[in-house]
Amino acid sequence: MQRALGIIADDFTGALMVAGYLEGAGIHCPVLFRPEGEIPPAAVVMAGTRTRTVPVAEALAELGRFTDAFLRAGCRRVAYKACATFDSTEDGNIGPAADYLADRAGQRPVLMSAGFPRFGTTVHQGYMFYRGRLVSESIKRFDPLTPMSDPDLVRFLGRQTPHRIALLNHAALRSGTDAARTAIEAFAAEGMGHVFLDTTDDGDVETAAEVAASMDRVVVASDPLIIAYATRLGRAMRPGTMPAPRHVDGPTAVLAGSVGPIVLAQLAAFSAEHPCLSLDLLDPAEEEGLVSTALDWAARRIGTAPLAISTATGPEGVAAVQAAFGRVEAARRAERILGAIAKGLCDRGVRRFVVAGGETSGAVVDALGITAVRALPDGPLGTGFCVSTGPVPLSLYLKPGKLGADDILLRAVKAMNQGSAR
Fold this sequence. Notes:
Layout (H helix, E strand, L loop, with lengths): L2 E7 L2 H13 L6 E2 L11 E5 L7 H17 L2 E7 L12 H12 L4 E4 L7 E4 L2 E4 L2 E2 L18 H5 L7 E4 L1 H5 L2 H13 L4 E4 L4 H13 L4 E3 L1 H14 L15 E5 L4 H11 L4 E3 L8 H13 L7 E4 L4 H11 L1 H21 L4 E5 L1 H10 L4 E4 L9 E4 L6 E5 L8 H10 L5
Parallel strand pairs: 1-3, 1-4, 2-3, 4-11, 5-10, 5-11, 9-10, 12-14, 12-15, 13-14, 15-18
Antiparallel strand pairs: 2-16, 6-7, 7-8, 16-17, 17-18
Helix pairs in contact: 1-8, 2-3, 6-7, 7-8, 10-12, 11-12, 12-13
């Protein structure tokens, strides 16, 4: 069948966020985690990858596999979804992904946009603000893999690509779609490789989506533009609707690998009502020993109440673990441990997983062997709920580590118990 759009997300939680919004808008959007196999019929299809923090060559190889799969499946366009704060290093991987898709499509400039006004992340005059502060002065500066130290995204992204980047600012976007298209065409005539669009408010997003849908340009953007863009393209194909799935019955476990004060507050609220085990990544035990300890602890509790297992820590703890293992290996150690724990919990009958952290979510999904899911529509807790489509169905709630109120883990468990996330 002919499809309007294939979207490749740089992590799993972001893929589910977009799919959940589209499902809520009546646009069926299956989420795939591997490019092999048949792609379900839908006007818009989504891929969840782990391209945000892996080496550039590895990220581009994964991007290429999904691009090939989507083009074979009849997608007219392919877009790349990055996180709202464009988390990345000076090497990539957003710039390299944009260059790769532009080369595949044979056209420039690429339209780029960051931010998510609904959650307090905005971009004005090319500068990013997170919850009212420059991103470089926010908690994002403590991110263990992608600390955001430069709020000027045009300048920052310019270190990731050899192509020049132009800025289409808030004032230009307020002038309307015709003026914005004219400006982009002028930038193209000047040889610009990319055009970065402000996201000062939702009005900027709507104008950018109208422009993107009407122009034959590659789009590399965060959630709001991707959602608005995909909604326009998906509705134009008049897709049919599908009933939302229901959650799977069975015991529930929470796994948290994100770091920082937000997830620690969420774990504190959860542990006030349910058992919670915190693992120390500096424990001299080998990874297998930590996994075995966690599974032995969990085995005595599975089925009696929801439980949580965490490697989360604050800035001082992160610094100590990184000093011992290195920045990347510290994160990968936590992911391997929680992935192995997830597999062990599933083998012991757990059928519902609440996971905090984008990279942790990827590790858990990989460890559980999940290849595709159906996202539930946006609801009171936002997005992130899904049901796997494999031989052993599982319910999952995958959330970014730095989003959500203190009680979100408790509310996610309750929503699963009630059988619906809405």
